[in-house]
Amino acid sequence: MSNSAPRRLIYLFGIAGDVELSPAMRAVESTGWEIIVPSVPGFDGVAGFQPRDEYLDWLTTFWDSIDATGATPCPVVGASLGGMIAAELAALRPEVVTRLALLAPFGIADAANPGFNLYGTPAGERMAHLFAKGVPDAFATRFADRGPEEAPVAAYLSDVAAANILWPLGDRGTAKRLHRVCQPRLTLWGDLDEINPVTNAASWGGAQVIPGAGHLLEWDAPEQVSAALLDFLSSLAR
Amino acid sequence: MKMMWFHLMPYPGLPDDFNTKHRSVWVDIDPALFDRDVMASTYDTYIDQLVYAEDCGFDGICVNEHHNNGYGLMPSPNLIAAILANRTSQAAITVLGNSVALYNPPLRVAEEFAMLDLFSRGRLIAGFPVGTAMDTTHSYSMNPGTLRPRYYEGIDLIMKAWQATEPFAYNGRFNQQRHVNPVPRPWQQPHPPVWIPGGGSVETWDFCAQNDFVYGALTYYGYKMVRETVGGYWARVEAHGRDDNPHRLAVTQFIGVADNDAEAYKLYREPAEYFFNRSLHVYPGFTDAPGYITEASVRARYKSQVRQVARAKQAKHDLTWDEMVENGYVVIGGPDTVREQLEEAARELRIGHLCAMLQFGNMSDELTRYNTNLFGEKVAPGLRNMFAEYPDPWWPQNAR
């Protein structure tokens, strides 16, 4: 990327959906980066969402949303299930991804250690398993602006979308396409990730492990994650 | 009213401390709990009981499908139904049913049901449940978001396959087949009666009403707890311009008959407590999966106090025997008491098909046969003529 190019990146949110920008991404934003978060059906909690028939339909949905931003080509940061989608984007449409940052990406599961079964857990208890340092208010009050009757429905729809992508093990064959990812890549992983164990990082060629962080590590460890991201992104100009 | 004998086929040997030592009877139940000799003899006993039900005058005998389950030992109800078709001659062979989306391709269901209909010379009732979240999304790992469209498409394929007069191609969202041409076709033409077991989904009510299928309100909590579900169903039947023929509905009910009320109270306590407080020990995390319940049903759920109460009770697993009786989970008593309660329930809910569950929990074979015989001799005759003025086009052509 040249020095005159706009400093913008696409951020693909994680399993708990699109709530608000995480502290880590806000820190990145504060340095002058424009953070663009595509709006994706289902995760927006809008009534009438229909789950997709197959993974290719989801990739199409995400790519339509990403293309609608007009931001590409640019760096892409993907967290959790967003990391899986970001990796697919980098592998299959390499021209739109200049750099790839993955935060505990789904996409490659280990049957010997599949991690905590989030969707085999009562709905009210799930959030606690995504964070190592308590559930942030942004997630505890997801969609509260929709009102008391609509908020739980919107949250349900967001979970429907995530489960529709990840069921049952969060593995959609990404490993078969990983060799196509040729962009500079950063992978970060929380060592306390319950649902996508850090041992899975080996399948991605290793990761920078963030101590004390759970699955949504950009919320658990904003300083470490933002520092790593900024270092990775700033290397663009080197 | 048609009366049917419904077997869940529970494993009878779950330990007394099951609830404290194990988190769930379903999905991840410890396989070490099952003794192969007990399992094998249990199948023999339960199949004999179903055959005995026909001898006692029941109009139909029912089996169903569950997976990874300690209280339902029929991952393949069709295997049991095949035996029953051979060993009986008059009762409706009621398979409630095959969870269509679990079969790949669903045409397998069309084939096996057609075989059962031929084995029984036209006595099959073809049940098509979605299947519980425990069975489908957790035990079989079906994607919850696509389970229902797969299910509806599977039924569409089966119905077309049964009625097609020549091979055809099918190009669905999930199933593409160039040569749909199942051999054999069913004995009953144009197809066996179709019943849809459900748990209260708004979409299922509409699906039954639109397609003129029987709705089966399969509940473990008795006619009192199923009032809201049944009321919702009948409202949709009316909305779709269908008549109120009671035979559009089937309801399950645990029943314990004895010579008198006091005897029934004494006899059925242990098996009921075993079933409700041990067999239904299901980890709550397995009861829902995001997408298993439709958006419409989620909205309805948040407005349904009755359902919330029922779910809370289900999660409790410490029901007292008196609670079970008072709430109608189990209808017990002498023949007159049972008949009066069932008659009242049938009139209020318009139940044309009663799926009587006369074996539950760890009920012994002796008590099961006593219960079955008493019901057949002293309860059924007083109920049989209910709704006789209504035709029953949803009954197998060659069943009694």
Describe the structure in your own words.
The complex is a heterodimer of chains A (238) and B (400). Chain A is of the alpha/beta class. Chain A is 32% helix and 13% strand. Chain A is built from eight helices and six strands. A six-stranded parallel sheet of chain A has the order 2-1-3-4-5-6, with helices on both faces. In chain A, strand 3, helix 3 (81-92) and strand 4 form a beta-alpha-beta unit. In chain A, helix 1 (23-29) runs parallel beside helix 8. Chain A is globular. The relative contact order of chain A is 0.20. The mean pLDDT of chain A is 95. In chain B, strands 1-2-3-4-7-8-9-11 form an eight-stranded parallel beta barrel, surrounded by eight helices. Chain B has a two-stranded antiparallel sheet with strand order 5-6. With 400 residues, chain B is α/β, with parallel strands linked by helices. In chain B, helix 4 links the parallel strand 3 (92-95) and strand 4 (124-127). Chain B has 16 helices and eleven strands. Chain B has helices at residues 18-21, 36-55, 77-87, 107-119, 133-139, 144-163, 202-211, 222-225, 227-239, 261-267, 269-279, 295-303, 305-316, 321-326, 335-349, 365-383; strands at residues 2-6, 60-63, 92-95, 124-127, 168-171, 176-180, 194-198, 214-217, 249-257, 330-333, 353-357. Helices cover 45% and strands 13% of the residues of chain B. Chain B is globular and about 60 Å long. Chains A and B meet through helix 6 of A and helix 6 and helix 12 of B.
TL;DR?
The complex is a heterodimer of chains A (238) and B (400). Chain A has helices spanning 23-29, 55-69, 81-92, 123-126, 137-140, 150-166, 217-220, 222-234, and strands at residues 8-12, 34-36, 74-79, 97-103, 185-190, 208-210.
List its traits.
heterodimer, A: 238 residues, alpha/beta, six-stranded parallel β-sheet, 8 helices, 13% strand, globular, B: alpha/beta, eight-stranded parallel β-barrel, 45% helix
